[in-house]
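Hi there,

I know you've been waiting on this one. I reran it after we fixed the sequence typo, so this is the corrected version. Both the input and the resulting structure follow.
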Amino acid sequence: MARMESAPHDPIIAVHQGVDVSIAGINLSTELPPWHLESEDCDVGFTSSFEFTLRAVPNEMTRQLDADFSSKKEAWKAQLEERGASIAGSAPPLPSDKFFERIEAEVTDDLGTEYMWVGGETASLESPWEATWIYAPAPPQEAGHLVLDFIAEGLKTGHSCTLDLRS
């Protein structure tokens, strides 16, 4: 089983729009998402992937964004009931959807494997401030280290996590 070899002194990997973001977990071997297997745009021959989960740390900013979302959702529901779906349109997006879209990782290992972001999942009503990113391929068995360098708004955050894959 892999173990975290080095990480920031705290689990915060980025501060974005006033919200601290932490790495909440990693799964080094997972299935590729179904949409990747069906995509004509992505014919790179990957058969495996890995994923990691990010979580925003609740604070005043997340509470305010949640309150704003709740107000927008109630207004949308009222319009839906009064005027119907064609007028009300789509439900308002969760505030964390756009937030997590701007956070990514540059992934490297000691073998020089080229990793590609292949998808993920952001926010749900059950876990509105979480995102899971999927990269392919999964680290090769021969790799000794996997490094995640975190990026927000296109700029490196200065935080990284190194996993010892030999453990």
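Quick highlight: The CA atoms of residues 28 and 50 lie 5 Å apart.

Best,
R. S.
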